């Protein structure tokens, strides 16, 4: 790592995203933003902030409420040589735009035998915890990870929010970046330099002897919180954050499970056919299988829509205490 | 551009219409004989629309196309051998066998792609127009779609974005009277689809889509507006598809008489009559022969090419 890349300051996750956008737009005039209320309003979650004053209304482009049209326009602009970054106000609204995401953006490079590319980014606030209920709180990453042609990114820290977004903008493919709403106000060290991360590189957040926890999005910080409590109880766990679900960097997970012999997979999304089922299968198909001392365990959101009432909402998705209990059970029982 | 009285454009229009007709007749034949795979959507009877519209475009301009897109592709100048190779599942096809009839694109001629999703190309055209605008370019985008597309959300969202941002896009509706089996009289209340333009604050015009000159004039006006920064136009070209929607269509929803009436308004036969004095019978016959020969040569070249290979199947899922 160069000295420049090591220069960090404390920024919030939202500020880190904004800094990545600003640096990418400064470096490359083809990069522009479009989405609902990204201009003077500053973005539904304040992410775009003052960018319109720095880059103007042409490049920080407010759109009508037309999710399909917005994504379609990004596909067309990308085909015609631009580098659009779309903000979809809540990831739930990608359902409105699914044709353009799945049938157009993801397929065009392949359908055309490689003759054209769609270098676009779709950013979407995702997840529960804000009391916004069923249509504004979903975790839909498995939808996108299932589609060949899309890349899927879930940054869990401010630093990753910046460097993974820079990587997504650099990438010649359509990339979905799912930013967790509860993380926007969290602070952490963020590199000053506009150095992109590499898509397809997991982060080992913590290394322990007894259990491998794999977690995505906001569950990474909950898993780390749980790990502290578990350590106090004498249980030593690893926490691995894949960071990009597609391409997936499975090797650190497999290596860690070989060492610990146990895996607890934590996601906010409902359990059935969720992304952690893919991780479970990946471990099961790998040499780690022979080292397992316990069945692979999943701790996921319930198979329910996200409810409104705060106590119900908390009950619908894993909390740090749930991770502690599941981990303790797994280690004590096996 | 005078397609009737001016020998050069007249010849080009006639040759291109015949080329589209012969290409699609050949495709129909190859499919019927079991030599072509999959499905395809033929535009026989509609040739005047792509030919009239594309003659209004310049190098560097873009088009988006539809699942009935052979005509657009040919009119924009695509290579017939690569098109035929694609349909015959060859490695030398435009998409190396990944796209087929519904997904042919020719980036070299600004063709951003046929589309298997009705209205899918409409917001993409708006986006290409946005890219042109942001680069300060002079290019124009023509978005082709059928009457079936105008009731999809993608159409409304794409047209509205182009309208509010004054994008250089010309929306060309090929109203061939049926969205698969759904007739235009059952699918919307307006008399003419061009009326829809009013709702978006842009000009709308309906022309005889079996007359390449009428299509050309309307699209050329719209292209001029677009290049001048005055925004999009909706051009509705009324025409008819002689063949079924796709290969599985039994034509249960329309009568032989109706089809026969439209065949009598064959855009190519009518155009030949109108350019008889300009080109002369010999030149007209030469266009017919040349179109036939071009298509035969394309089939020969495609047949001689290697089959698309599965060895590299997973390679072009992601761009490097």
TrEMBL record, chain A:
* Domain named Transketolase-like pyrimidine-binding: residues: 11-186
Q: Which GO terms describe its molecular function?
A: magnesium ion binding; oxidoreductase activity
Q: Which InterPro entries match?
A: THDP-binding, Transketo_C/PFOR_II, Transketolase-like_Pyr-bd, Transketolase_C
Q: Which domain of life is it from?
A: Bacteria
Cofactor(s) needed by this chain: thiamine diphosphate
Ordered alphabetically, the record's keywords are: Oxidoreductase, Thiamine pyrophosphate
PANTHER family named among the record's database cross-references: PYRUVATE DEHYDROGENASE E1 COMPONENT BETA SUBUNIT, PYRUVATE DEHYDROGENASE E1 COMPONENT SUBUNIT BETA
Indicate what this protein is called per its UniProt record: Acetoin dehydrogenase (TPP-dependent) beta chain
Q: Which organism is it from?
A: Amycolatopsis methanolica 239
UniProtKB/TrEMBL annotation, chain B:
Q: Which Pfam families match?
A: E1_dh
Query: Keywords on this record?
Result: Oxidoreductase, Thiamine pyrophosphate
Record's keyword annotation contains rRNA-binding: no
Alphabetical list of InterPro entries matching this protein: DH_E1 (IPR001017), PDH_E1_Alpha_Subunit (IPR050642), THDP-binding (IPR029061)
Any one Gene Ontology BP term: pyruvate decarboxylation to acetyl-CoA
Q: Which SUPFAM superfamilies match?
A: Thiamin diphosphate-binding fold (THDP-binding)
Q: Which cofactor does it need?
A: thiamine diphosphate
Instruction: List residues of the Dehydrogenase E1 component domain.
Output: 17-308
**One GO molecular-function annotation for this sequence?**
pyruvate dehydrogenase (acetyl-transferring) activity
Q: What is this protein called?
A: Acetoin dehydrogenase (TPP-dependent) alpha chain
The top of its lineage is: Bacteria, Bacillati, Actinomycetota, Actinomycetes, Pseudonocardiales
């Amino acid at each position: 790592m160069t000295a420049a890349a090591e220069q960090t300051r404390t920024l919030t996750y939202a500020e880190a995203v904004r800094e990545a956008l600003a640096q990418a737009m400064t470096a490359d005039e083809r990069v522009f933003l479009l989405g609902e209320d990204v201009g003077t309003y500053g973005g539904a979650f304040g992410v775009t902030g003052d960018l319109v004053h720095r880059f103007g209304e042409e490049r920080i482009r407010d759109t009508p409420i037309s999710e399909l049209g917005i994504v379609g326009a990004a596909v067309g602009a990308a085909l015609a040589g631009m580098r659009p970054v779309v903000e979809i106000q809540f990831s739930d609204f990608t359902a409105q735009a699914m044709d353009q995401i799945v049938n157009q953006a993801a397929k065009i490079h392949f359908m055309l035998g490689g003759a054209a590319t769609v270098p676009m980014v779709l950013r979407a606030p995702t997840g529960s915890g804000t009391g916004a209920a069923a249509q504004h709180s979903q975790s839909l990453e498995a939808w996108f990870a299932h589609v060949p042609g899309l890349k899927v990114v879930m940054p869990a820290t401010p630093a990753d929010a910046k460097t993974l977004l820079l990587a997504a903008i650099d990438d010649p493919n359509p990339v979905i970046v799912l930013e967790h709403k509860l993380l926007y106000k969290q602070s952490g060290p963020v590199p000053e330099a506009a150095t992109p991360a590499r898509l397809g590189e997991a982060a080992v957040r913590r290394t322990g002897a007894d259990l491998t926890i794999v977690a995505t999005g906001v569950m990474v910080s909950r898993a780390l919180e749980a790990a502290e409590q578990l350590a106090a109880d004498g249980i030593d766990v690893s926490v691995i954050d894949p960071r990009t679900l597609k391409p997936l960097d499975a090797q650190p997970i497999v290596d860690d499970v070989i060492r610990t012999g146990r895996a607890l997979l934590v996601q906010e999304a409902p359990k059935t056919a969720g992304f952690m089922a893919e991780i479970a299968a990946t471990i099961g198909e790998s040499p780690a299988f022979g080292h397992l001392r316990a069945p692979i365990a999943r701790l996921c959101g319930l198979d329910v829509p996200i409810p409104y009432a705060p106590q119900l909402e908390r009950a619908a998705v894993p909390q740090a205490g749930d991770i502690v209990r599941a981990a303790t059970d797994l280690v004590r029982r096996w | 551009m005078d397609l009737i009285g001016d020998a050069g454009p007249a010849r080009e229009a006639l040759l291109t219409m015949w080329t589209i007709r012969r290409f699609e007749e050949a495709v129909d034949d190859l499919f019927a004989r079991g030599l072509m795979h999959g499905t395809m959507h033929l535009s026989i009877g509609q040739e005047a629309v792509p030919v009239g519209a594309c003659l209004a475009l310049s190098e560097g301009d873009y088009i988006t196309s539809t699942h009935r897109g052979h005509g657009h592709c040919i009119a924009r100048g695509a290579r017939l051998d690569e098109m035929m190779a694609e349909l015959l599942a060859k490695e030398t096809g435009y998409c190396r066998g990944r796209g087929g009839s519904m997904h042919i694109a020719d980036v070299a001629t600004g063709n951003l792609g046929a589309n298997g999703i009705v209205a899918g190309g409409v917001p993409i055209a708006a986006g290409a127009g946005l890219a042109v605008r942001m680069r300060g370019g002079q290019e124009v985008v023509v978005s082709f779609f059928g009457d079936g597309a105008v009731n999809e959300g993608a159409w409304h969202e794409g047209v509205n974005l182009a309208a509010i941002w004054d994008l250089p896009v010309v929306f060309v509706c090929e109203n061939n009277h049926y969205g698969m089996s759904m007739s235009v009289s059952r699918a919307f209340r307006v008399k003419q689809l061009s009326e829809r333009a009013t709702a978006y604050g842009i000009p709308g015009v309906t022309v005889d889509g079996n007359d390449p000159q009428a299509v050309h004039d309307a699209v050329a006006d719209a292209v001029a507006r677009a290049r001048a920064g005055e925004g999009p136009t909706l051009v509705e070209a009324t025409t008819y598809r002689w063949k079924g929607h796709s290969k599985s269509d039994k034509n249960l929803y329309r009568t032989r008489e109706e089809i026969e009436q439209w065949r009598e308004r064959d855009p190519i036969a009518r155009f030949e009559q109108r350019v008889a004095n300009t080109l002369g019978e010999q030149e007209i016959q030469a266009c017919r022969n040349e179109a036939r020969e071009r298509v035969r040569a394309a089939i020969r070249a495609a047949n001689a090419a290697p089959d698309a290979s599965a060895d590299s199947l997973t390679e072009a899922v992601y761009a490097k």
